Amino acid sequence: MLNSKLEETLYKWRVKSGLIVIIPVIILSKSNVYSIVGGISLTMIGLLIRTWASGHIQKEKELTVSGPYRYTRNPLYLGNLIIGISIVVSSLSWWVFAIFTAYFFLFYPIAINKEKNRMNKCFPSEYEEFRKNVPLFFPSLKLCQSVNPNKFNWTLYRKNREIRALAGFFFFWLVIALKTLFF
Predict the structure, then answer these.
(1) Cα 172 to chain center, whole Å?
(2) What domains, with CATH codes, occur in the chain?
(3) Is the pLDDT at 159 greater than 80, yes or no?
(4) Are the C-beta atoms of 66 and 143 separated by less than 8 Å?
(5) Which of 12, 25, 105, 111 is most buried by a 10 A CB count?
(6) What angle do helix axes 4-28 and 94-122 make, rounded to 10 degrees?
(7) What stretch of H or E contains 182?
(8) Residue 62 has pLDDT above 80, yes or no
(9) d(C-alpha 109, C-alpha 15), whole Å
(10) Is the dihedral of CA 112, 144, 86, 178 positive or negative?
């Protein structure tokens, strides 16, 4: 296992690194119209999962167990995985596959573990019950019966600044489409 200082650095750099990594992904992409349509379709699924999660999560205030958190403890990261797969599918490039795989396995285990430890520290008894009933990453089709009746909330979506992910992926797909059409 990595030392805690290195883990902390990687955790802090995961988003910025993703923004840097997207440049070679765009350059190496060999997309065509069909792969872009498929990629955008998968991206929409990932963004919908992220949107659903962002409309429920109240970071650091309470343990979120409603919405998609009834199926997986990490729906935001699951949405990111689907979005990453969409980029790989659309790129038609083994290099992009390698970059995504390296990025995902470098940053996400650390982020998931760090957040798991934080939730366990902030909400020890609640998190233990949550951990027993809801899988860490890949969702269970068995619905965890939440005692939390929270509904999706657009205010939380905005507060969690999820619009940035939407804008970022709109821009990414625009650049990929322009590259495909003109280069």
Answers:
(1) 16
(2) 10-182 (1.20.120)
(3) yes
(4) no
(5) 25
(6) 150
(7) helix 163-182
(8) yes
(9) 14
(10) negative
pLDDT beyond 90 at 3? no
Q: Which tokens belong to 55?
A: 């409309």
Q: Which of the two residues, 60 and 95, has the higher pLDDT score?
A: 95
| Residue in the structure block whose two tokens are 């990929």 | 176
- Give the 3-state secondary structure of residue 62: coil
Distance of CA 81 to the CA centre of its chain: 6
SS3 labels along 42-54 = HHHHHHHHHHHHH
Q: At what angle do helices 75-91 and 94-122 cross, to 10 degrees?
A: 180
Closest by Cα among 83, 90, 85, 95 to 35? 90
136-147 pLDDT tens trace: 999 987 766 666
